[in-house]
């Protein structure tokens, strides 16, 4: 069945190696906060996982705070800094193509008096550094930008952004949503010079319900969201998700070892897919940038002229057993046009005919062949029986 799964950006399958580690530790029950041997053994496992997560992004293990996922990591950084900062007025800069976790949180902070600037993007989804710099003013305290977009795959120039921000004001807190980038592109937090970075396990073949927030040393003065027993250096109360952390750590360890090879394989599959689909199906438009170095190589957002994406997605699922997406998994149930594609300036008709295809570790060339053949049949069928005027 994995050969028919093309929605890796929504979530990834649990790796067998990770599942094996989880099974081996399934009966581990000690509370990591307890001083006896059962608790201390559990604590050792958590610290091992923390070190493995840190190694993937070249951080120190003390800079990793475990959370329940990417959404909590984003909330911890942005909301935590907003309430900890005594600077008022409080200005936040983000972009129009951020994940809903960031956008909804910014709407909430605006209701509390924050000024929000939403940066535009160009036709390929890139934020102009000039626009970012021009948006900064004396009350700017927080900037949050997505590293790689989940719908179109655009990779932002985070290092250059950080440099520009710090040259203007080193006190501005720069947070990066790296949930979709983790495990797909090299991330070196010291090279990037960001203040905070959000991560999630289920995007890199780890278990759901576990995430992490990188907090640069010296920038850990946040108001905690969850008050309790003082876990995670006093920043997140509550007994840690032991199994989730063990699984996340193992997934990161595997990603560290395989990152370059995985990227090489993904580029080859990308090129193969693009060549095949462009020859197989007429009247398609690529919404993802076709730039090898500046886009996630596993991500394709494609419009099929005279097709409704919902109908195509259902047909692919029910007849061919293929899973694709018609937008972000977090907003798929809402009857709204993709805010990301709207920000690119695409027409309503083009957006309504767009699907996202994303593949990963378990995708091979035979899977690509099956996908393209199925797409060709499905598109031909829909265009013949459900013509759109």
TrEMBL record:
Residues 5-371 form the Aminotransferase class V domain. Its EC number is 2.8.1.7. Keywords: Iron, Iron-sulfur, Metal-binding, Pyridoxal phosphate, Transferase. InterPro entries: Aminotrans_V_dom, Aminotrans_V_PyrdxlP_BS, Cysteine_dSase, PyrdxlP-dep_Trfase, PyrdxlP-dep_Trfase_major, PyrdxlP-dep_Trfase_small. The keyword Lipid biosynthesis does not apply. Gene3D superfamilies: 1.10.260.50, Aspartate Aminotransferase, domain 1, Type I PLP-dependent aspartate aminotransferase-like (Major domain). It catalyses: (sulfur carrier)-H + L-cysteine = (sulfur carrier)-SH + L-alanine. One of its GO terms (molecular function) is cysteine desulfurase activity. Belongs to the class-V pyridoxal-phosphate-dependent aminotransferase family. NifS/IscS subfamily. This is cysteine desulfurase. It comes from Lysinibacillus parviboronicapiens.
């Amino acid at each position: 069945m994995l050969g028919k799964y093309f929605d890796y950006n929504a979530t990834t399958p649990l790796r067998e190696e990770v599942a094996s580690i989880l099974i081996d530790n399934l009966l581990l029950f000690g509370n990591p906060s307890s001083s006896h041997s059962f608790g201390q053994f559990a604590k050792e496992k958590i610290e091992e996982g923390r070190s493995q997560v840190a190694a993937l992004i070249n951080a120190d293990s003390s800079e990793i705070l475990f959370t329940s996922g990417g959404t909590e990591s984003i909330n911890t950084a942005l909301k935590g800094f907003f309430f900890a900062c005594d600077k008022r007025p409080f200005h936040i800069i983000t972009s129009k193509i951020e994940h809903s976790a960031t956008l909804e949180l910014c709407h909430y902070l605006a209701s509390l008096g924050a000024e929000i600037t939403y940066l535009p993007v160009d036709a390929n989804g890139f934020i102009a550094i000039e626009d970012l710099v021009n948006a900064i003013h004396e009350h700017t305290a927080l900037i949050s930008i997505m590293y790689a977009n989940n719908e179109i795959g655009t990779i932002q120039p985070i290092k250059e952004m950080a440099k520009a921000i710090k040259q203007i004001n080193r006190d501005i807190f720069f947070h990066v949503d790296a949930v979709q980038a983790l495990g797909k592109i090299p991330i070196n937090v010291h090279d990037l010079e960001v203040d905070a970075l959000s991560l999630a396990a289920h995007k890199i073949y780890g278990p759901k319900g576990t995430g992490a927030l990188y907090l640069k040393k010296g920038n850990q003065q946040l108001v905690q969201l969850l008050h309790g027993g003082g876990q995670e250096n006093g920043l997140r109360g509550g007994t840690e998700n032991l199994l989730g952390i063990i699984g996340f750590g193992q997934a990161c360890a595997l990603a560290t070892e395989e990152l370059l090879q995985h990227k090489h394989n993904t580029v080859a599959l990308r090129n193969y897919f693009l060549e095949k689909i462009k020859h197989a199906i007429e009247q398609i438009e690529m919404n993802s940038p076709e730039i090898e170095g500046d886009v996630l190589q596993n991500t394709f957002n494609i419009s099929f002229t005279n097709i409704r994406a919902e109908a195509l997605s259902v047909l692919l699922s029910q007849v061919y057993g293929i899973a694709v997406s018609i937008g972000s998994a977090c907003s798929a149930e809402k009857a709204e046009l993709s805010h990301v594609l709207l920000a690119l300036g695409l027409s309503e008709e083009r957006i309504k005919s767009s699907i996202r295809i994303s593949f990963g570790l378990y995708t091979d060339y035979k899977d690509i062949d099956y996908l393209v053949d199925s797409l060709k049949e499905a598109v031909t069928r829909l265009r013949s029986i459900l013509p759109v005027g």
